[in-house]
Design a protein that fits this description.
The structure is a homodimer of 417-residue chains. Chain A is built from 14 helices and 17 strands. Chain A is α/β, with parallel strands linked by helices and 417 residues long. The first copy, chain A, folds into 3 domains: 170 residues, Molybdenum Cofactor Biosythetic Enzyme, Chain A, CATH 3.40.980.10; 76 residues, Alpha-Beta Plaits, CATH 3.30.70; 152 residues, Maf protein (Alpha-Beta Complex), CATH 3.90.950.20. In chain A, the strands form 4 sheets. A 6-stranded mixed sheet of chain A has the order 2-1-3-8-7-6, with helices on both faces. The first copy, chain A, has a 5-stranded mixed sheet with strand order 14-13-15-16-17, sandwiched between helices. In chain A, α3 crosses α4, α9 packs across α10 and α9 runs parallel beside α14. Chain A is globular. At the A-B interface, α1, α2, β2, α7 and β10 of A face α1, α2, β2, α7 and β10 of B. β2 of chain A pairs antiparallel with β2 of chain B.
């Protein structure tokens, strides 16, 4: 029994995480899910596939936290040692679960494939562990008691982790631990505002002792502002947050684009869909990123009419009808070419809005007049054309492209309100 | 003085990381850089903006590791408390660095802006700390001694962290700690091979006791295989790794696309550039992602001719000349439409290769015959057309799009060898 769990830790296992191949996204997703139960995750730890390190971390964390959720290291290959480490930390041997082994073999048979021998390892668990079935992959998870705490082990691949979290871990936590109380969190997503300007306009809302607490982070043009209310009861915390939230909405009405979905593409797709309007994009320096951010949204087909990646000068002329003399006289990164690209996309697509982006993403190609980071935007709307110029911090190619894509989406958002 | 540093830990600070807003990518980047000096980072820790948690973590980690590298929490806003926590862990007060404050004010003056008052906080450091200037942002970093270890604090925004790492931290580490020895790492990136198939073909190369050690991870179709050699000397470790590397290259010649850059787009751009060939893409379900992955590569303009995001049926017809009756008879996700899209892109661009992608990315729109995850690819090359069908795991929209984009790039890679 867990009793009242309030604080938890997450552990992510994998040499590839320590090697910087990709960051651990599982712990954040688990923290979000546990927050809904009133459980605060206040520490993530990333460790490699070494049994000794894992064993002592499981042991230490279970002494400090009632709940430790671990992801990764339970696959079929020999570099997966999480199950061995969990057994050692719990002071029990590994035992083969015959029912599970039979089920594993059968799932392979159904797909008319022989089970690779290595997969048998996935049927071994620490003695006394409760198995959590895996509905979308082969490696089952498990829960095991280690002194004061419960260690829950889930698979590392994010979609398997998510599925087991929703199907197994959260229902079990809901049934065994008390209801969370007194913690309410709410976030706002804004575009078109630097972090320091937000901070100055927010004033003492951001003081460390403020109630509710406010935090802000900036990421390639997107600002996330989070309110954290804490109180004796959920109602009290919610009242704190709601009072401040109303003030935030009033003060940042223009910049605020969402209170639930951080993706600016989602805000644009939703807004255009509400208006029954469509959009076409002609991209040069962003090379398909704006189209990608829009079509990443389920339902984008209702509003996304067409996209061109007019990367070369030739394709600007042949695919979008830009007058070659404009490129010769003003350069591909110019007000004139941005406008011509937007007009070309509008005429060819018949969309209600057409947006173009042409800029210097670097690392080479910058000049004193047109440095890396300079981007021109064109916006066509009901026959009217407008151009916008922006100089983004010359950080790196990927960031400049992302800054530019976010600004492009914000231009459409502001134009289609 | 650090002496011989062999093991280190990374700490990433920020409520937004614990809230799952985005994952910590700084620690991985630092681990990669330190590995070049022979320093192994074997633990990442993520903590929120709470002084007490940070103080005790700094203290504990510095007792266990000679080097602890922390990122984040040194910005101008009041929720940034890393400097206070570092001072407390070191048992010293914070002091204002007047020279730095003057420099901060001047940098604002040069840009003809008044310094926001909140920025003054960035000129306070633990007494005795060595300041590391920030060449691309306003928050300087610092190094401070905490009992047995050195805590190095860098800014949280990745481009500021990277710049300070290269300019300040690595040179200092090189000058104060002994040369690394006996650890050599080498990675291979492969496409077109499931993890279990790799494991079966790799055999006992993957045994836990193998020399060198081999690890493998899979991510939306990309396999990363890493060899880790350890020995008395760097030469010994390198010899281990090189012998096995030669065997890996021979056994996986077809699947191996890079030994340094994980981005499949980079392999395609490099290979096409070597051949002097160009590429056009017509994307439906991937919605610009293939173009984005290619144009993300510096120098893509030499090979990327043009791209179309033909998301709607109308744009398939109007922008790429697909016969509407093909869509009517076979559906937009079909061999016939994939071939017509590739042909349309080839004719309109004049490129040497033209690739098309049309599929069901979900979450809706699937049918028993054409389920979510079904994707058709068309490839045009010197007048010849080929089609490929693939059913990707129906995980989620973003993963299906990424699987499909990676397979598309692999088709071009294999065709242009």
């Amino acid at each position: 029994m867990l009793g009242e769990v309030r604080r938890a830790a997450c552990v992510a296992v994998g040499d590839e995480l320590l090697a910087g191949d990709y960051p651990d996204s599982n712990s954040g997703a688990i923290a979000v899910a546990l927050a809904e139960l009133g459980i605060v995750v206040d520490r993530f730890v990333v460790l490699g596939d070494r049994k000794g390190d894992l064993e002592s971390a499981f042991y230490d964390l279970c002494a400090r936290y009632q709940l430790v959720v671990c992801t990764g290291g339970i696959g079929p290959t020999l570099d997966d040692v999480t199950r061995e480490a969990a057994a050692a930390a719990a002071g029990v041997p590994l035992e083969r679960n015959e029912a599970l082994l039979a089920a594993l073999r059968e799932s392979y048979m159904r797909r008319a494939r022989a089970m690779p021998e290595s997969n048998e390892r996935q049927a071994w668990f620490p003695r006394g562990a409760q198995v959590m079935p895996n509905a979308v992959g082969t490696a089952p998870g498990f829960r095991v008691w280690i002194d004061g705490g419960t260690l829950c082990v889930l698979p590392g691949p994010p979609h398997e982790m998510q599925d087991m979290l929703r199907r197994e871990l959260l229902p079990w936590l809901r049934s065994t631990c008390g209801q969370g109380q007194g913690i309410v969190r709410h976030s706002f997503y804004m575009l078109g505002l630097p972090e320091s300007a937000f901070s100055d306009r927010a004033g003492d809302w951001m003081a460390r002792g403020a109630t509710p607490l406010m935090g802000v982070t900036a990421h390639t043009g997107i600002l996330k502002v989070t309110l954290l209310g804490k109180g004796e009861s959920v109602e009290g915390a919610r009242a704190q947050v709601e009072a401040r939230a109303a003030e935030v909405r009033a003060r940042f009405a223009e910049e605020l684009y969402s209170e639930d979905d951080p993706r600016p593409g989602a805000a644009v797709v939703r807004q255009l869909a509400e208006r029954g309007a469509t959009l076409a994009v002609a991209e040069s320096c962003t090379g398909g990123l704006v189209a990608e951010l829009l079509t990443d949204i389920a339902g984008a087909s209702r509003v996304f009419e067409a996209g061109w990646v007019a990367y070369s000068n030739e394709s600007k002329v042949s695919a979008l009808g830009v007058d070659p003399s404009l490129i010769e006289r003003h350069g591909a990164v110019s007000r004139e070419v941005a406008l011509a690209l937007a007009q070309g996309a509008a005429e060819r697509s018949g969309a209600d809005f057409a947006l173009s982006i042409t800029g210097v993403a670097g690392p080479t190609g910058g000049t004193p007049e047109k440095p890396v980071g300079l981007v021109w935007f064109g916006l066509w709307q009901a026959g009217r054309l407008e151009a916008f110029e922006q100089r983004f911090p010359s950080v790196d190619r990927a960031s400049i492209r992302r800054y530019a894509a976010h600004m492009a989406l914000n231009l459409v958002r502001l134009a289609s309100r």
